[in-house]
């Protein structure tokens, strides 16, 4: 029985794993993305790791999820959160290294497929996955099909401008949603959000704070940390209310470290979403948390590209 290689290329880490068609992950590990000067170096390292373990011979195909990954061209194109600039022919590089078909999609699209096939959206035909990582991505499912758009880039919710003349984004524009509602956005709020509780917060004494530090501090009752989380949930909830007008999803499925902080964040997002929701959509859209914890959703989603493609020709 063959296996698929699923690869999730993120701005911080690249997670890759081998899984069978039923979703059993047979091997999984990660590498720091920024360690590799070129995409070829990363792919070679992945190949060497699997080769050393004798795991390459059964691979039928490679599925790749990456920011700004274009399903049609197989290229990563101008990803703001990756150090590889311009256009990177990542599918071709994997094809040459492994000598099997390689398919690419946006990392959030991969998470959406994984959620639909193996996770908390198995009962849904209309939903949107929101990935809350280094940036913010989205995978849109309508009638059980992933929406790519005419050029492969549909679903860039993270780069919809939600605050006029707001924070500078890595894409070069201002006020994009991911500059507020992402791990990076949460950290930026420590320095950029004004509050009378700021001076007393332990967050300002952490040399290199993380989003996890903010959530941990909030759990300990830090008032400024609580304000940051509430502000993040508000910006995200209001944005989701606007997005509901586009595809009328049954649910938004939140994926990533921020989402896994617990139901309190999700319920706060839901509250602000309902407050801003067009009346015909009120109380119709759920907020769900991914049931595929950690990296599984992205790896399984990326690998499922292989199985979906094979089914087309069965």
What are the key terms here?
Nucleotidyltransferase, domain 5; 314 residues; globular; five-stranded mixed β-sheet; 35% helix; alpha/beta
Question: Which helices and strands occur, and which strands form pairs?
Answer:
Layout: E1 3-9, E2 13-19, E3 25-32, H1 39-52, E4 59-66, E5 76-77, E6 87-88, H2 90-98, E7 102-106, H3 107-118, E8 127-132, E9 136-142, E10 145-146, H4 183-192, H5 211-219, H6 223-247, E11 251-255, H7 263-276, E12 286-289, H8 296-311
Parallel strand pairs: 1-4, 4-7, 8-11, 11-12
Antiparallel strand pairs: 1-2, 2-3, 5-6, 8-9, 9-10
Would you give an account of this structure?
- The chain is α/β, with parallel strands linked by helices.
- It has two domains: 3-112 and 294-311, ATPase, nucleotide binding domain (Nucleotidyltransferase, domain 5, 2-Layer Sandwich), CATH 3.30.420.40; 124-289, Nucleotidyltransferase, domain 5 (2-Layer Sandwich), CATH 3.30.420.40.
- 35% of the residues lie in helices and 20% in strands.
- It has helices at residues 39-52, 90-98, 107-118, 183-192, 211-219, 223-247, 263-276, 296-311; strands at 3-9, 13-19, 25-32, 59-66, 76-77, 87-88, 102-106, 127-132, 136-142, 145-146, 251-255, 286-289.
- The strands form three sheets. A five-stranded mixed sheet has the order 3-2-1-4-7. A five-stranded mixed sheet has the order 10-9-8-11-12, with helices on both faces. A two-stranded antiparallel ribbon has the order 5-6.
- A hairpin with a 3-residue loop joins β1 and β2 (13-19).
- α5 crosses α6 (223-247).
- It is globular and about 60 Å long.
- The mean pLDDT is 92.
